[in-house]
Amino acid sequence: MILALARQLRNAGVLGINRRNAEFLSRCNPRALYPRVDDKVLTKQLAGAQGIPIPRLLLVIERTAEIRGFEERLQGTQEFALKPARGCQGSGIVLITKRVQAGFVTTSGEVISPEDLAYHISSILSGIFSLAGLADRAILEELIHPDPVFAALTYRGVPDIRIVVYRGVPVMGMIRLPTRASDGKANLHRGALGAGIDLGRGTTLSAVCRDRVVTHHPDTGAAVRGLLVPHWPTMLHLAARCYELAGLGYLGVDLVLDEQRGPLLLELNARPGLAIQLANESGLLERLQRVDAAPGRLFESAESRAAWAMETFQASQVSVTE
Amino acid sequence: MKRNAAGMVAGVLLLLPALLVTYRIVGLGYPPIPTAPGRTWEVSVRALVRPDARGVLAQLILPQSRGESIVMNEQLTSGVLDAHMVVSEGRRLGVWSGPPSEDEAIIGYQAIIHLPAGRGVTPRLKAPELQTYPPDLPPAERAALERLVARWRRRPPQQRLAAAAQTLGGEWSDVEAAAEDIRQWSSMSAERGPLQAFLLLLRAAELPARQVQGLPLGRSVRSAPLEWVEVWVGKEWARISAESGLPSGRSVQYLPLARDGEEALTVRQGKLLQARWTVRRRPVSNWFLHYERLTRSNRLLDRWSLFTLPEETREAFSVLLLVPIAALFTAALRNLVGFPTFGIFMPVLLAISFRATGLLYGLGLFVGIMLFGYLIRRLLNHLRLLMVPRLSIMLTLVIVALLYLALLGSKLENQQFMSTGLLPIVILTMIIERFYVLLEEAGVREGLRTVAGSAAVSVITYFLIHSDTLQLTFFVYPELLAMVMALQVLLGRYTGFKLLELLRFRPIGAPGRARA
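Output (structure tokens, whole complex):
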């Protein structure tokens, strides 16, 4: 039974975590380059230098002593996103839409007193949310206003688009849609919905929620399949360019679609998860092997890589009508 | 390439200890299974001696450790007498002496004898030299003896022995000997005793033989040691009962004490009133046996054996040697199964600490501390403290809680409540913090799942590292650690699916969906 299941998964080209670590992360991702993706401040600097659009950085708080004056330093800025620079899986993020007399109003309408926010910042600095538990920095960046195209599939929060990029070639994508269970966060671990994306067309495929295949959004009730992601070719191109930015051969690129600014690079991930396979009902390994077998001239530019990916990983008509 | 290199490293790590273990077993006579019971007997001798005008002087030939048979825990006891152990002419002697007295004196000796399970590896023996005829033997008698054995002198040793042994029962059927010669032999037997006559016959038949006094190792109480004759039959000594002339079975092992006509117990001054020779089973721990065996040896590997460490260090290492197995096991659970645990080796630390607390109480304590810590963490959250000071406060409160538990235990006279010494409290405090964050962020289900995973791994690890069989095996053959390492290397190169991944990705692999 077990062996048969393992064979089925192997035949379907599914990538397991052991193989991801041993054959892809350890081979393609030099440890020395991890800070480029683990530290959002550094990522933003590198992206800015490459002309990749990002949410603007408003403020970096490095020391506890700096917390006291951060409100003044924000000047008139009303809305912002507060994040740990080295946070993982969306933990420690607070989104503020408005400043009122009593403090700060979050996207969910809750009012946070200045003291509470200061405590949260000091928690971030102490490294609670950071990957290795080391001391961290807090960043305040421009708040994203998600494109309303996803409104029917979003419970509060901001949906984001994850694209796995192998040796600079986008191989698989999904859109992560916040749910009530995920508390408005676009994080699959917390119960957000992940919908696979047809790389060729930019339309959503099947979806997964808590490792189970679903067809409708649990909160809004809207059907997931068939939604066209705007600016899709641009997004694939952006994702492909991130390879030069990070230097990591196996990379997770997280993009958001801002109402006004269009696709923006939110963050990079050196250890992208494998749930994306469930969202696409398709194995990653098979695609990675196709990239390895591709002709060398493919890798010359980000344009050629993105174009090859659109052509190669277009979902077959059969599986769409199924 | 890397796969091959890892495979080779694993191969070498498997092969080297295999060779070393084989050498220890075949070359040095280690027990193949260190926990095989083997046989241990308690042998004791008690004699009552009445001093004469000169006092008391008595001598007992003591058993000797040879190869795998070892003598341990020897005790000489004496009431009023002086007792010494001396070595003389290659024999070990117990000597008791005392001044003249009206009172009867007691001579006592006790020892534990261990014989290897099964026959073990028999050492290759050198053929002994043929004994000489006693100088006082008249030439006529010698000639008669040689005529008696003339018929079977050329036969193989076993047959010669069988023919000679029959004569102890007075049977001469196999020999067409002259009646005169038989009569002469009968008178020799009457004069020197049947045993001596038998030995002379063996000499005439050119069979090396020796007379032995000792004890059969089986439950017995006797007033005198047993006598038997050992006859060299080519490659080994055959044992013949001195009374019946029958060969003794192999099922019983014998403990030789005195050879070549010597008495095991000799009273030179004083009168032996009575003696009691007792043999009985005496189970002892395998640890004790290995210790006794290895510390007596002066072979290089034995001198570097872990058993030569001081006792406390030995105890610590007997557990530490199994920690790599526990680590291997944890790695397997995480990489092959996909079990969630707090930290990588926390469950192992927890399992080691259960040694002091006991399993059930230790687990209860772990769960209790997690809950208590979680509540404290929730309360502390209102104070908005920085992380490290907050962790310190939690650590302090956890220790205070344990302290009160211990106090309560001492009032209730409950030992377990007080045995928290080895709990890795500092690490537990970190775990509480992670538990809290996990509960807040991933939900109660994930948090409890991880607690259950950690507890399960530590319970399994507990049974693993507290297995006496495993502890002893690794302590006797520490090179087995290399084999554990080989498995760790192989596990490190495992790139297949985890068991839980199979379930997780099952929808993708469903038949009909797989691409051709």
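The longest strand of chain A covers residues 169-177.
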